[in-house]
Amino acid sequence: MKKMLLSLSITAVLTGCGGGETLEDVKNDAPPIIPTATVSFDPSNGVISVPNDLLMSGTQDGTLNIPGELDDDGVSIPRSAYADPSFALGALDGWSSQVPYKIDLVMPSFMSDDVPDGVSLDAASAGAPGSVRIFEVIMGASLTDAECSQAPAGSACKLVGELTFGEDFITQASGDGVAVIPLKPFKAGSSYINVVTTNLKDSLGRSIEPSSTYGLVKQEAPLVTESQLALQGAVNSYENVVVSGGSIAKDEIIFSAAMTIQSAGPVLSTIKSLLAASLSEQSLPTPAVQVPEQPMLTVTQVFASQNITGLSPVFSGVQYQKGNVMLPMYLSTPTGKEISDLAATYWQGMCDNAVAVMGYKAAAGEAFPTDPISTNDATCAALSEGRLRDLGLDSTKHLTKYNSIPKVQSMANVPVQVTKPILPVLNGIRAQIGMDELMMPEGGWPVVIMQHGITSKKEDMLALTAALSMQGFATVAIDHPVHGERGIDVDGDGTDDFNASTGSVLAYMNLQSLLVARDNLRQSSADLLGLRLGLNFINDTSLNTMDVSFIGHSLGSVVAPAFISQANNPLAEQVDPLFNVKSVALASGGGGLASFLLESASFGPFVQGSVLASAGTAESAEFISYMSNEAVSNCGALAGNQQAFISCAYNEYVTSLTVGGETSKLANIQGVMTQFAFASQTALDSGDPTNYAAAVNALGTPVYMNVVVGDGEGNKKDQVIPPTTSINPIAGSLPLAKMMGLMTVDQSQAPTEDGMSYLVQFTKGHHGSVLTPAPAEGSGATVEGSAAANTEMQLQIASYLATRGKALLITNTDVVTN
Question: Is 384 helix (H, G, I), strand (E, B) or coil?
Fold first, then answer.
């Protein structure tokens, strides 16, 4: 965590802008009597605010070029070193689509009798429309625009349009700077130019001015050194493109900076294409769910083996089976038993990136090998129409839009849980409650894929099978990576060394290596794609694998948008039905992972405590000491549970600072969390559901979602994934629902010709109410309220999926709100 202070330490990558004297030294204007405030920008001395595409200068693979990634000989740091949050950004092909960011200003240190309070930022202007404007543009070397494909990389080429203040983003004063807060995600893979205008004022009513560096490079008269000319060319291109629309003049611009948003879908899209190719390419294994013959077993018996009794008799009408499916694993296997040993297990490309290949081809000329030099090289060329090769050019092989083919590290034999209705039992129960007799459809039982939450396991989703079986559904489920039966036993002693279900949540939610956390999310989505395809080849004709729906809870809901956006995205007429998902139900999910983890009542103190302990600041050292001393008295009993102990110790530590009036330390800690939120969200972005929500909406897939918002009294809102967050307006459950186009309802919805998407907000219950009628500790939910929420949630999900999203039944309006 020590190098995540990005805006304070970006130096090495930009020192080439100097050339002996800096641009600040070139300008020699006499200072005014009252110094002016300026936008912080002096690249030759490492002073820039992020996000900024200047950090792509000199990139050899299309990723951000972070200081320290390469040594003096141009050799990259080892893969495990990218566990550092700032280095993790060097594995990305752009910036976050959603995290708020700050444009720093330099306020003069000046006081006089006339200006006793000094000069500061005028907060009203910082929050007013027009002070910061954002333009969508197409940059040079574009992969999608032929006209801009030949323009220089790093330069702005064409104006797309301007974002709307108050609709797409807002701004506000933040210390000596302006915070830019997205209200909608920026488009993945697109580029934008942030423009600060003369509308931004200081406390004396004067316009903020450009830095002397920016004032020089915005001029058109050629500068001196090669690096100065390059910076001047980039800035001139930014300003020329944004003024081409006629809505702003150059003399209004005091700062401009390009930011390219990282790609989100290309890698998962490639995985789907490879799965589809396995149907005709024998070298690629096709997933196939296999269920061997086994004795009859009911879900009631499974629960009884876990000492769970007193259940609905419906579970006796649900058959339970176990099978397996072989799925490609893109996560590598650790060789050690510590969480730190997972640092290098994140996904890796199979090939050299296209940027390196093109550069080598241009430099090598006729010496460039047109024929493959190895089997893997041939595969890379074949899968990419020659754009990708394996010539030893790329040691890191980061997955980006320039390198989207992931390397299969192993094939995993993944246990599959299957349930099916037992008609005699179910029809006996249906008759008792006045329901019509259930019959298996001619094509077989429709199937619901179920995906569990973090620290849970597939067996916990059996709680939904009674309601689903009563509606005539079969179900299938697998564990997330590093959960349940998919734990990792490094030394083969029969005990898992990494298992988020039975051990540390960090095995999946890896705070020590954000790229591993990101790729655990992507592996979950990729596994669901493989499972969905593998269902078509199940050795059970009683299942209709052309009629598949999905239900996800918690983490299962988090990874669902990425899965659905790929599964239902058209690929080929013959293939599309094999991936199609008819309807979707999501319980207690959310987007904006970094923000909701930091603000989660359940995980937040643990996350913040873990971040602080690793931050390398004075407060970090003090907190580590506090955990070993003062925290023992109140938290020592929790020492055997890492998450509980760190959570307790962090809460105690912050409370002690608050009581002691240590405002400076509290501000420093908040600064650490803000910077972690920026770095972690940027690293996690391509696994975040926020970046797939718009695609789900555009596809028209019917989606139901429930969220516990609380009753404003005793029953609290969801304590695991908050409905909204204070630090990011597009993070949490409700913003995700909005981005997927869900309509909030609190009454039954009559059948429609096409499927519809609905959000139901629950006043009663808690994060896990979809699976249990029992209240959860700390939720404020009562026994009665929890039971009512559980019954209503399951009924809504079952009725919605039964109609494939064409109707929704709400029977207990006392537990929902609009």
Answer: helix
